[in-house]
Amino acid sequence: MLRIGTIELAWNDPVVLAVAAVLLLLFVMLLLILRASGRVAEPLAQQIGWLGQRVQSLAEGQERLAGGLHHVSEAQAMSQSAMLQVMEQRLAEVQRQMGESLQGSATRTARSLGDLHQRLETIDKAQANIEKLSGNVLSLQDILSNKQTRGAFGEIQLHDIVLKALPSDAYTMQATLSNGRRADCLIHLPNPPGPIVIDSKFPLEAYEALRRAQNQADLDMAARLLRSSVRAHIKAIAEKYILEGETADGALMFLPSEAVYAELHANFPELIRDGFAARVWIVSPTTCMATLNTMRAVLKDARMREQAGAIRKELAMLYQDVSRLGDRVGNLDRHFGQAAKDLEDIRISAEKAGKRARRLDNFDFEELAPETSTMIGSGP
After folding, report:
1. Sign of CA dihedral 268, 271, 276, 281
2. Are 206 and 223 in contact (CB under 8 A)?
């Protein structure tokens, strides 16, 4: 390092190398001048002086250059420091914004994950319900595919409707009639019309064939099958469950399917008329409930009439009891009248006895005789 005043320069600095080159050049020139003749000594001295001035000027310029470089380095250091502070502030601001953004993103992500979890739970529950419903549908299909289980299904549905519409003593399930036939349900209606039978029938095969028909031929065949099946059911109910003197002059055929009932009324009105002619009325779950509610009103009215007779009997007995109570009150009143008369007589006798006692106490013998004769002629 080369130190000039307060400036430190490295030996490989361009300024130091330039100065060294100049000095070397001056030394060589000086040697050349010393070897030259004496005739050039004075001009050489002038040149040396001029060179010395230039060297001094160069030194001064070098010093000013060193000062400028120092100021430039200081300014550069201050600028770098300011830039570093600004960069640190910017970096801190960016980190803060990134932190807030990441926190907000994390919060939104957590909320979204929570919502997604809830939706997944809802989907899982819905999937479980769908699987359960699918199982129930398959079970229902298995039940309806077999004629015996389908009949049991209709009986159970009928029992559930009757149970909700009528009191327990107003019907009998699986009632046996005098002809040995067993009815699905027997409603105990008063005469008239009398007990009425409800029998469950479900012509599902014919209805499904009608629904599956792809052409007119299949449709006609399914319609014939449905007509024959329903008419057979109507005939069987009319022959088995309408007994003169035992049941009502009609019966109900319960269809446990609103679709089959609607199909009959929409496209097979002749079957409904056949049922009317045979006094077999076809009902669905909805119309059966309405019919049973009407029967319930009939049962209620009949029971009220029965109770009205009992009430009239009780009222007659109550009238007899009230009449006897009136007679006894009259007798008691007569007894009270006689007792009052006896009490009045007792009071009169007591007053007279008191008067006699006072006279005896005063020794009023002169008036005693007339009073005595008067008392003998009077009552008590």
Report:
1. negative
2. no
Q: Cβ(22)–Cβ(47) under 8 Å?
A: no
Please give the structure tokens belonging to residue 79.
Answer: 């600028």
- What is the pLDDT at residue 47? 67
Residue whose C-alpha is closest to residue 271's, from 201, 182, 184: 201
pLDDT at 83 over 70: yes
Instruction: State pLDDT tens for residues 178-202.
Output: 888 888 899 988 887 889 999 888 7
- Preceding peptide of 192 cis, ω within 30°: yes
Beta strands in 57-150 (DSSP E): none
CA torsion, points 93, 98, 99, 105, in degrees to nearest 10?
150
Give the predicted TM-score (pTM) of the model.
0.44
- Report long-range pairs for 173-182 (Cβ below 8 Å, ≥24 apart): 177/240, 177/241, 177/243, 177/246, 177/247, 178/243, 178/246, 179/240, 179/243, 181/240, 181/241
> Using an 8 Å Cβ cutoff, are 371 and 359 in contact?
yes
216-245 confidence digits (pLDDT tens): 888 888 888 888 989 999 999 999 998 888
DSSP string, 6-21: TEEE-TT-HHHHHHHH
Largest CA distance in the chain: 224
Residue corresponding to tokens 């060179």: 51
What are the tens digits of pLDDT across the range 245-296?
888 889 999 988 888 888 888 889 999 999 999 999 999 888 988 888 888 8
SS3 128: helix
DSSP, collapsed to helix, strand or coil, labels residue 167 as coil
What kind of architecture, by CATH, is found in domain 150-305?
A: 3-Layer(aba) Sandwich (3.40)
Question: pLDDT tens for residues 343-363?
Answer: 888 888 878 877 877 776 665
